Amino acid sequence: MLIGQGFDAHRFAPDRPLVLGGVEIPHDQGMLAHSDGDVLIHALCDALLGAAGLGDIGRHFPDTDDAFAGIDSRILLRRVMESLAERGLSVHNADMTLIAQRPKLAPYIDPMRRVLAGDLGCDVQRVNVKATTMEKMGFTGRGEGIAASASVLLSEPDV
């Protein structure tokens, strides 16, 4: 078994859709980012890559590469999963936390879990997404952006 953890944060920006965990969420702002700014998937990718000893999302999908401008983060996640599959690794479980003062995310948690489970190739019961606030402290508490953390456990092939 291999353990990985990841973290990501982005500030809000006008005139962009808000996408978290592969689900578009109605909101007046989205994330400022080179890609679609899905902080949850970015944290998840970092956790997956870290567990496999493969660096981080910036190494594989740099924001200096125009090929990734505006890209759907689910495409990045699927590419990470292909790299893991090539090494015989699979997701045992994933646990993630979104940190946002706004918008309220509870109605979107189950759809996020279903989307992510599909991309991770595991049962939805092995994918957990939580949301919390910072009680109006810090950049997320002031409503300036959203952060996410992720932990994963990967299974290695039997040797």
From TrEMBL:
Gene Ontology MF annotations: 2-C-methyl-D-erythritol 2,4-cyclodiphosphate synthase activity; metal ion binding
Q: Which residues form the 2-C-methyl-D-erythritol 2,4-cyclodiphosphate synthase domain?
A: 1-154
The protein's required cofactor(s) are namely: a divalent metal cation
- EC numbers listed for it are 4.6.1.12
So, what pathway does this thing act in? Answer: Isoprenoid biosynthesis; isopentenyl diphosphate biosynthesis via DXP pathway; isopentenyl diphosphate from 1-deoxy-D-xylulose 5-phosphate: step 4/6
Cofactor note text: Binds 1 divalent metal cation per subunit.
Query: Which sites bind a divalent metal cation?
Result: 8, 10, 42
Task: Tell me yes or no: is Acyltransferase among this UniProt entry's keywords.
Answer: no
Assembly behavior: Homotrimer.
Briefly state the protein's biological role: Involved in the biosynthesis of isopentenyl diphosphate (IPP) and dimethylallyl diphosphate (DMAPP), two major building blocks of isoprenoid compounds. Catalyzes the conversion of 4-diphosphocytidyl-2-C-methyl-D-erythritol 2-phosphate (CDP-ME2P) to 2-C-methyl-D-erythritol 2,4-cyclodiphosphate (ME-CPP) with a corresponding release of cytidine 5-monophosphate (CMP).
Write the protein's name. Answer: 2-C-methyl-D-erythritol 2,4-cyclodiphosphate synthase
Tell me the organism: Imhoffiella purpurea
Which gene holds the coding sequence for this protein? ispF
